[in-house]
Amino acid sequence: MNIKKLAKPFRFSALLMLALCLIFSQSAIFANNEVINYGKKVTTYANGSVVDISTGQNCGIATITYISEEGISKSVTTDKNGEFKIGKLETGFYSWYVECDGYYKGSYLSYPVISGGNIYAFEISKDNEVNRTWEQQVATEGAPGDSCSFSEVVENLNKLSNSSISLFSIYNTAAPTPYVPTSVTVKKTSGAVVTVSLEDYIAHVVCREMNPAQNIYNGMSDSQKLVALKAQAIVARGYATYHYYVSRRHSSSTGYYFCDTTHCQVYDPTYSPVLAIQAANETAKQIPAIVSGSPYNWNIDYIDAVFFASCPGSTINVEDSPAFGGTPISYLKGVSCPYDIRPTLTSGHRVGFCQDGAAGYAKNGTTYASDIVTHYYTGVSVVTGQYN
Ligand SMILES: [Zn+2]
Ligand SMILES: [Zn+2]
């Protein structure tokens, strides 16, 4: 999943706007590689900074005036760090004017405010040469009053970005939300194939994979058990999501995604301990994933969230476990498992999330399930997805 840099630099008055054929239809603009409908306005924020184009430094206290399509004008000033914050602003197009003592006034006309948050870097100049360069550039792009298509506008903006001047940038600060399946199909040992909601499936996987009624959890309070069960729920949901979108456990010709045995995950809808159901509900849509990139180019990768029962105090690298193919995987590294509640028992392949170790963390005071999950998967975050 990528979010591209949204827009390219431009500045200056009606001349530039017309020359660039800035005839955005007022209904749509490219953002996140898709068309956003501006008919439905939402409130977002616009923050940013004003800097000297030559030095990249704060220009002093700058005033930013922004005027809506309806002509409503408001102003904000930068703080001592050269930064400004506009907490609430409706999406749409605004004209921006930036003033700072000793600098030429910067104008950015019909620039979009997009949903999900905006950060602007306004660059202004003391140097008249910069202004002239831009006027010349504009002159080569077309005469005022020309009309052209939206794709030509984008093309022209791209051409301008190849100049040595970068006066304006905009990007989306929110990382994208990964999909999780709304429901999954499971083939039961009886032979029946059932469709169940993801959360119902996870709840009844947790019930069997980490049954809170087991004697080994004696001595743990319900709230401690719940933390461990929530970690298991996040892991089970991550495993299911990975094997739904990335790598199936059963081929598509079978007509189902998962079986109800340890081959996939043990699923038993007839057994519903309250704590396990609560753990699934309280972590709904949460999965472990690798978030990388930057606001210009986000990436989110699902992980194969493998888990096992118990280890002697540490997990091992995936390539060192005979149960796997010998290829290193960045997030499946050996880590310490200091609180394993049954350290004398080794049960499982020792790769990824250790169930007894997770219980040990909860018993020893860890209160956030996500902290346990991210301990066992290197370089991974717990993110909240959306159903599809
Ligand atoms: Zn299976
Ligand atoms: Zn362990």
Structural description of this entry:
The protein has 388 residues and is an alpha+beta fold. The chain folds into two domains: 13-171, Carboxypeptidase-like, regulatory domain (Immunoglobulin-like); 179-387, no CATH class. Helices cover 24% and strands 27% of the residues. It is built from eight helices and 20 strands. The strands form seven sheets. A four-stranded mixed beta sheet has the order 6-3-9-10, with no helix packed on it. Strand 15 and strand 16 form a beta hairpin. The site of one zinc ion has 7 residues, from helix 7. One zinc ion binds next to helix 7.
Q: Order of strands across the biggest sheet? A: 6-3-9-10
- Average per-residue pLDDT, rounded, comes to 78
Distance between the termini: 15 Å
Roughly how many Å is the radius of gyration? 27 Å
Counting H and I runs of at least 4 residues, what is the number of helices? 8
What is the N-to-C succession of helices and strands? HEEEEEEEEEHHEEEEHHEHEEEEHHEE
